[in-house]
Design a protein that fits this description.
The chain folds into 3 domains: about 5-65, OB fold (Dihydrolipoamide Acetyltransferase, E2P) (Beta Barrel); about 65-130, 5' to 3' exonuclease, C-terminal subdomain (DNA polymerase, domain 1, Orthogonal Bundle); about 155-200, Orthogonal Bundle (Helicase, Ruva Protein, domain 3), CATH 1.10.8. The chain contains 9 helices and 5 strands; from the N terminus they run βββαββαααααααα. It has helices at about 30-40, 65-75, 85-90, 95-105, 105-110, 120-130, 155-165, 170-180, 190-200; strands at about 5-10, 15-20, 25-30, 45-55, 60-65. A 5-stranded mixed β-barrel has the order 1-2-3-5-4. It starts with a strand and ends with a helix.
Length: about 200
């Protein structure tokens, strides 16, 4: 089972990327958001993956974050939602938006995705309503934490706080608040400084 790929971005298409890992090119299907996170050809990338095997097909699905992969698993467990529809939903909505839609019963938001009609959107929202709170991804909501892209300043800040002894949920929540306060482009040192105040408070 292939769970993660770390390598160089070799090529991309409308819904796929080729990741070169030690000279072996892995073709991964991706959402538009994941493709946007990967950067340009030659960049070093980390992709979380899910392998799907059927009688007629074998494919590797790639995600920019473990949170996106978690949502993909939840979505594809619903009757009528295959990998193509799940990726369309994850292309149309961020994991935060998807969580808010499910938690708030907003089927119209889910129906924005290509290939998702009102009936299917309602089923998705109804089936995932109770599970939405179990996936900690949305900043600014009580008890929830952010998911930072691997290698980003916010991810490094979460790691730094954990190294100082803070538990992962506390560290992630504190960094989430620091990002809200300082903005997405804040540097690592500033994030850690503000996050420490939030975590200690």
């Amino acid at each position: 089972m292939i769970a993660k790929l770390t390598g160089l971005l070799d090529d991309t298409g409308p819904d796929w990327a080729i990741i070169d890992v030690g000279g072996v090119g892995y073709l991964v299907q991706c959402s538009a958001r994941t493709l946007g996170h990967l950067g340009i050809r030659g960049d070093r990338v980390v992709v979380h993956t899910e392998m799907q095997v059927s009688e007629t097909d074998q494919r590797l699905i790639g995600f920019a974050s473990a949170a996106e992969r978690n949502w993909f698993r939840l979505l594809t467990a619903i009757q009528g939602v295959g990998s193509k529809v799940a990726l369309a939903i994850l292309s149309a909505l961020t994991t935060e938006e998807l969580q808010r839609a499910c938690a708030g019963g907003d089927a119209a938001m889910v129906a924005r995705a290509n290939g998702v009609g009102p009936k299917l959107a309602s089923r998705i929202v109804n089936e995932l309503k109770d599970k939405a709170g179990a996936l900690p991804v949305a900043p600014g909501m009580p008890g929830l934490t952010i998911t930072a892209p691997p290698g980003s300043a916010s991810a490094d800040a979460v790691s730094a706080l954990q190294n100082l002894g803070f538990k992962p949920p506390v560290a992630a929540t504190a960094v989430g608040r620091a990002v809200e306060e300082l903005g997405e482009d804040a540097g690592l040192n500033d994030l850690v400084r503000v996050a420490l105040k939030r975590a200690a408070g």
